[in-house]
Design brief:
43% of the residues lie in helices and 11% in strands. With 281 residues, the chain is of the alpha/beta class. The protein has a 7-stranded parallel sheet with strand order 4-3-2-1-5-6-7, with helices on both faces. The protein is globular and about 70 Å long.
Length: 281
C-alpha cells in the first residue's frame, strides 16, 4: 500500500540495487555481507519461519487490498475432475460422472461474476486453489463473464502451475497450507464445496469447524452433489453419536445446480452471525 507521507530515509529497493553494484571482493561475496531482506538463503533458514509465515499472510493481503477485493465466493473441489469434453479420458467411471460438476462450477462462477459486475466488481470475486479440475472451472467461469478471479496456489512436490484462467495479478503461491487456508476464508461471503478428495475434505471440515465453534461468521455453505457427499460421509451418524449436534447439520445445504446455488446465496438464515454457544456442549 502506498505510503501517505514523505519518506525521509533511503528506500530499501534503492539499497538493494546499489548493493548489486559493489566491487567483487572476498568480503562482498561472503553470505554474511548480503542484505538480510535480499538474502534468499537466509530467509529460508528454520529460525526465520515466523517471518516467512508473516510474509505469506501479508503479501496476498496487501495486494488484494490494493486490488480492491472486498469479498470472495470460495470454490473448493477436486483437481482430478476433468472438463466434460475430456470425459472419455477420465481415470475412473465415477470421475467421468463427476464432470457434470466441472460444468456446474463454471456456470455458477460465471453467474456470480456477472451479478457482481453489475453491482460491485469488488464484491463476491471467485476464489479457488488455482489448480486444475473444479478450481479451473471456477476461474474459467469468472473469465467467461469478463471478471477477475483469485487463485491461491501452493507448492507441491510434483510440478504444477496455476490454471490459465486465474487473473494474473490475483494469482498467489504459498508454502504454508495454514496461511493459504486463512486467505480462503478471510474475505469469504460464501463457501461452495464440490466433490473432491483429501484436500477438499480438509478445507471443508476446517471451514465448518470454524463456523460450528463461532470462530467464523456463518456464510452460505453449499455442498454440490448430495449423492456424492452422503456416499462418503454419514453426517446423521455423527449427530446420532452425539459427536456433533443435530443443529450442526443446518450449517450447510446440498445443491445440485448453479441456479439452485445462486438462489441459496440470497436465502441463507443467519448469514453474518456468529454462534455464541455450541449446541450439545
Amino acid at each position: 500500500m502506498p505510503e501517505d507521507h514523505e519518506n525521509k530515509f533511503r528506500r530499501s529497493g534503492e539499497d538493494r540495487a546499489t548493493a548489486q553494484q559493489v566491487p567483487d571482493t572476498a568480503q562482498t561475496r561472503a553470505p554474511s555481507y548480503a542484505l538480510a531482506f535480499a538474502d534468499d538463503d537466509f530467509l529460508a533458514r528454520p529460525e526465520l519461519r515466523p517471518i516467512r509465515l508473516q510474509l505469506e499472510l501479508m503479501k496476498p493481503e496487501i495486494l488484494m487490498n490494493e486490488a480492491g477485493v472486498k469479498s470472495t465466493v470460495v470454490l473448493f473441489g477436486g483437481a482430478r475432475i476433468p472438463d466434460p469434453v475430456n470425459k472419455a479420458q477420465a481415470r475412473t467411471e465415477t470421475l467421468a460422472d463427476l464432470t457434470k460438476y466441472y460444468a456446474e462450477a463454471r456456470t455458477f462462477a460465471r453467474m456470480v461474476t456477472e451479478r457482481a459486475l453489475a453491482d460491485d466488481p469488488c464484491e463476491n470475486i471467485i476464489a479457488t486453489g488455482g489448480g486444475p479440475g473444479v478450481m479451473e472451472a471456477g476461474n474459467r467461469g469468472a473469465a467467461d463473464a469478463g471478471g477477475q478471479s483469485i487463485g491461491l496456489n501452493i507448492v507441491l512436490p510434483h510440478e504444477q502451475a496455476p490454471n490459465a484462467y486465474v487473473t494474473p495479478d490475483l494469482c498467489f503461491n504459498f508454502h504454508y497450507f495454514a496461511i493459504r487456508k486463512m486467505h480462503f476464508l478471510m474475505r469469504a461471503s460464501a463457501v461452495c464445496v464440490f466433490p473432491g478428495g483429501f484436500g477438499t475434505l480438509d478445507e471443508m471440515f476446517e471451514a465448518l469447524t470454524l463456523i460450528q465453534t463461532g470462530r467464523m461468521a456463518r456464510v452460505p455453505f453449499l455442498l454440490f452433489g448430495r449423492s456424492f457427499w452422503e456416499g462418503i460421509i454419514n453426517w446423521q451418524a455423527l449427530a446420532d453419536a452425539g459427536t456433533i449436534a443435530q443443529a450442526d447439520l443446518d450449517l450447510f445445504r446440498y445443491v445440485e445446480t448453479a441456479e439452485e446455488a445462486l438462489a441459496a446465496l440470497d436465502d441463507w438464515d443467519g448469514k453474518g452471525t456468529k454462534r455464541r454457544d455450541i449446541p450439545g456442549r
